[in-house]
Amino acid sequence: xxxxxxxxxxxxxxxxxxxxxxxxxxxxxxxxxxxxxxxxxxxxxxxxxxxxxxxxxxxxxxxxxxxxxxxxxxxxxxxxxxxxxxxxxxxxxxxxxxxxxxxxxxxxxxxxxxxxxxxxxxxxxxxxxxxxxxxxxxxxxxxxxxxxxxxxxxxxxxxxxxxxxxxxxxxxxxxxxxxxxxxxxxxxxxxx
Amino acid sequence: xxxxxxxxxxxxxxxxxxxxxxxxxxxxxxxxxxxxxxxxxxxxxxxxxxxxxxxxxxxxxxxxxxxxxxxxxxxxxxxxxxxxxxxxxxxxxxxxxxxxxxxxxxxxxxxxxxxxxxxxxxxxxxxxxxxxxxxxxxxxxxxxxxxxxxxxxxxxxxxxxxxxxxxxxxxxxxxxxxxxxxxxxxxxxxxxxxxxxxxxxxxxxxxxxxxxxxxxxxxxxxxxxxxxxxxxxxxxxxxxxxxxxxxxxxxxxxxxxxxxxxxxxxxxxxxxxxxxxxxxxxxxxxxxxxxxxxxxxxxxxxxxxxxxxxxxxxxxxxxxxxxxxxxxxxxxxxxxxxxxxxxxxxxxxxxxxxxxxxxxxxxxxxxxxxxxxxxxxxxxxxxxxxxxxxxxxxxxxxxxxxxxxxxxxxxxxxxxxxxxxxxxxxxxxxxxxxxxxxxxxxxxxxxxxxxxxxxxxxxxxxxxxxxxxxxxxxxxxxxxxxxxxxxxxxxxxxxxxxxxxxxxxxxxxxxxxxxxxxxxxxxxxxxxxxxxxxxxxxxxxxxxxxxxxxxxxxxxxxxxxxxxxxxxxxxxxxxxxxxxxxxxxxxxxxxxxxxxxxxxxxxxxx
Lengths: 192, 606
Fold this sequence. Notes:
The structure holds 2 protein chains of 2 kinds. Chain A is an all-alpha fold. Chain A has 2 domains: 3-117, Rna Polymerase Sigma Factor, Chain: A, CATH 1.10.1740.10; 121-185, Winged helix-like DNA-binding domain superfamily/Winged helix DNA-binding domain (Arc Repressor Mutant, subunit A, Orthogonal Bundle), CATH 1.10.10. Chain A has helices spanning 3-15, 19-38, 44-61, 71-97, 100-115, 120-133, 136-147, 152-159, 163-185. Chain A starts with a helix and ends in a 7-residue tail after the last helix. Chain B contains 8 helices and 34 strands. In chain B, the strands form 4 sheets. Chain B has an 18-stranded mixed sheet that branches. In chain B, strands 21, 22, 23, 25, 30, 31, 32 and 34 form an 8-stranded antiparallel sheet that branches. In chain B, strands 24-33-26-27-28-29 form a 6-stranded antiparallel sheet, with no helix packed on it. In chain B, α1 crosses α2, α2 packs across α3 (35-56) and α5 crosses α6. The two termini of chain B are 38 Å apart. Chain B folds into 3 domains: 3-55, no CATH class; 70-145 and 205-212 and 221-396, Jelly Rolls (Sandwich); 400-602, Exo-inulinase, domain 1 (Jelly Rolls, Sandwich). Chain B is α+β, with helices and mostly antiparallel strands.
């Protein structure tokens, strides 16, 4: 049985009322859903809340899922709407609070979600590959900062940089990663 | 606009480094003006988010799964019930939707811990219990299967519309099987209850969630509920209700709808909010409350009371709250979680030196600093400050407190020997314990009047507040004389100190002057009054207790009468020193002034 076949069986079981089957689907897809939400929301508690809402909505609407699109994309579609609603609310709230940068950011991110077709599944995979492909010092810096949770000040001291330089270095690395992802996402076979 | 400069600001912003107000404006302008930079930033923030998520996505999978199981269990067991009441919750959910979280926040974070799913059920039960109207108003209920087939679409689902394809826009798909009903506003669309900031009818005292008549003729199934946060019990001065985009003059007796805020003017403004359970919150002059909720439903259930204090001062007597729904005071710097207590929270919104200071008189309050999410439990008689560069430590609230209930002058007070007899505790004239009698003061006998001060404290005391109650037992307004009290601070000795004075002058036929009274703050250096600033106030009434407060914070001196800020001054001469009390009296009249509840509050962090 292929993984796709297995997933179809799980969906069918879940549609018949098997919570175990749904839990297994959640186990398989939660990371991707949360990764998607993390693109637009930085507060981990909010990400988890929106993730939970996404799966609850999916649970309730599972009977309407006919398999026209892969399940992960169907889930990301729900997550997308959850993120969009949240960002629009945040935009208004931040405006009211006079936090102009945060308000503008929320608005721009919401507009980005509205305008962009989601290809999340591929994007996250591509990013993971791009991180692995980074040259050693850069990979170590990303690893220290994002994965090992090193604080900026501490990391700056260890690398002999000022904090300001560290932030700009990280900015450049993220730009390189973004370009790498875009390269991997580009349609293959058309340009050459 | 220098692109590299904008990139640098952006990198710092994203790293959570505090930006000065000017830098924020610079960053915003740079991103607004340059589409290329904006696109870069939007791409960058997403990469940053995904990188962060890569770290924890597997670590927390189990917790996420467990949390969802609980949510599901509640949803399943409460499904029938939930369907019945979900309609009536629609607008309440939209009003209250948990939004105190900051998206892509910079230095400040408004983080709220995830709530247990059980809270949802509690909110729903409450709403159901309070929602009138026939059950026929509810949409069809679903029982039986664990996974509802063709379950009626709930409003939660409307918000999280399930697309047919991943790129479908967020417009909810219509449920063909459902009876027609008006489409509820999208989250964020204007909601009438919030725009109509005029007072809504008063709810029963104990009912925070109050259904009101449907506002639209179609669809009997849609019933709006407006959640009242609290009632404006008392106001004075200029107070405004902050609705969505408007400011409406507030009136006593008005209900504050959930999600609305309150702005209390500087100077004489004050407001008292009263919640259904008896919790009372006093807001001082210059306070801005962005939002108030009696129950704040989140995505998964109701949270407890929540006040978002952007600046100013709130004093609260919080009735016992349910353990799972504590009352929360959110500020730009942190969050205080309360189960039942008396507290005071002060918020200075200054972007560079701003802070939130929490004082707990009774009970226990948890304070979380947004900066690093560190928490401390602040217990009765203690305080803590959430701010950049200030240690998040619990410190004693009172440096000194004396209600004179021992009937003797305790050893915490020092005084010059010759004044020993002029200060003595006496029975309260109202029969409530003991008070301190300032004694008679013969200015002929004791010309060096400040030497009569009652002093307490250390040379190391820097920023603090002296509070006391005073009562004039015999006011003589029709003769030339002066009588009053002084609170002294940062005393170097009996000649050099900061002072706050509340006193009056009787009429003087010689100069044809009428009786007058005032509150002053000032500085005495080596026996000479260096500066004094004051405002007139009504003549004190004989036999009435007044409360005085003298705050010394850095170079700022502030004098309050009955909780109202009367006068502010700046001086940098004196850095630290003990506190003192003294009477002002002239003309040798035998008048009595009583003192009670003297407290010196540790004002670290002001």
